Amino acid sequence: MSSASTAVRNILLVRTDRIGDVILSLPMLPVLKKHFPEASISMMVRKYTRELVEHHSCVDEIIQWEVDGERSLFDYVKLVKGKKFDIAILPYPRFKLALILFLAGVPVRVGTGYRWYSFLFNKKRYEHRKDAKFHEVEYNLNLLKTIGIPIEGEPLFELNIPDEVREQVKVVLRRNGLERFAVLHPGSGGSARDWSPENFAALADRLQQEFGLNVVLTGSVDEQPLVRQVIKKMKTTPFDYSGKFLLRELTALIQHANVFVSNSTGPLHIAAAVGTPVVGFYPPIVQCSPARWGPYTKKKRVFTADNNQCTLCKGSPCQSNVCMEQITVEQVVVAIRELLNENL
Q1: Model confidence over 103-146: pLDDT tens digits?
Q2: What is the pLDDT of residues 230-244, one digit of tens each?
Q3: The domain containing residue 247 runs over which residues?
């Protein structure tokens, strides 16, 4: 262990965006802990994502970021300064966050070199993420190279679920007779283009009729109207769990599923992280492509629409969900059959 490594006592990883972003930053934590074994690692996250990291073995403290809360910029400056962080890493570049780290006097501030406010960082990585030349996991890990950390081996994802939460979910599954089931998550929270409710409904029917799988529909409270649209178009009866689970409960549920199907959205990355086979739908937009945002697992099938074949876009930049209609229910059924056979 080098003297430089032992001199680092406190590290802050800032990830104040959404579910998938937090999940795809998790591999940074064991790498940091391995390189700085004596250091305490804190994460700054939003309230609704803290459940994803508060039981992580490498995380010692959670600092909650309030998007529209009572804390001012200077409240956060005071808070961060008081923690005496030696290193702060900002994979999600935002001016306010970079300014907080700068004003708090964090000695080593890691971030992108391509924003107008990049002068606030003193360790910079010059990569345009919008080009999607690497996966988001790799972009995140590459930031650590700026502070001399080598990246070796496969990225590690750790999602720890408290035993009492696991048991609560098992009780729900037993009560509903759910042993073999698929989770279908028809929303994306606006992060991608969406496969239609009609397609999700047709897929749900076929999974029940042809595979003997129960179907569980999930989504946030805001996505409940979308889930109800899917249910209205179905011939069979699913289990509607939309808006009923916190993130940690949703994680436990997904871990029990035989397959998870969704658009490009945070829960897709939860499923990949806990080892559930996944099917994901992606739009023909470089910034949103599976090359950058695909599920980080070998147990997957990914479909990407082609805007050159789209009747609306006709080769121009993707304009709506119309492109996603190229992905057929039959294609998805074949993919699920393959995944289930591979993961018996």
Answers
A1: 999 999 999 999 999 999 999 999 988 899 999 999 999 999 99
A2: 999 999 999 999 999
A3: 164-342
Alpha carbon distance 211, 191 (integer Å): 30
Strand order in the sheet with 123-125: 61-65, 40-46, 10-14, 87-89, 108-112, 123-125
Closest by alpha carbon to 105, among 91, 119, 85? 85
Look at 9 and 3; give whichever has higher pLDDT: 9
Query: CATH code at 69?
Result: 3.40.50.2000
Looking at the fold, whether 245 and 118 belong to one and the same domain comes out as: no
Asked whether residue 124 is assigned to any structural domain, the reply reads yes
Question: By C-alpha distance, which of 309, 327, 340, 337 is closest to 198?
Answer: 327
Instruction: Give the integer Cα–Cα distance in Å for 327 and 235.
Output: 21
Which stretches within 17-113 are classed as H helix?
Answer: 19-23, 28-35, 73-83, 95-103
Amino acid identity of residue 107, one-letter, is P
- pLDDT the model gives residue 317: 57
Same domain, residue pair 91 and 172: no
Q: How confident is the model at residue 309 (pLDDT cuts 50, 70, 90)?
A: low
Residues 34 and 125 in one domain: yes
User: What span, in angstroms and rounded, lies between the C-alpha atoms of 93 and 104?
Assistant: 17
- Which pLDDT score, from 0 to 100, does residue 71 have? 87
The separation between CA 119 and the C-alpha centre of its own chain, rounded to angstroms, equals 29
Q: pLDDT at position 320, please?
A: 57
Q: With contact defined as beta carbons under 8 Å apart, do 192 and 282 qualify?
A: yes
Structural domain contains residue 153: no
Within 10 Å of residue 36's Cβ, how many Cβ atoms?
A: 23
Average pLDDT in the 63-87 region?
92
Q: Among the three residues 101, 118, 145, which one is the final residue of a domain in this structure? A: 145
Residues 21 and 133 in one domain: yes
> Between residues 97 and 318, which one has the greater pLDDT?
97
What torsion, rounded to 10 degrees, do the Cα atoms 50, 261, 153, 290 define? -100
Per the CB < 8 A criterion, the answer to whether 246 and 222 are in contact is: no
Whether residue 238 is found in the same domain as residue 107: no
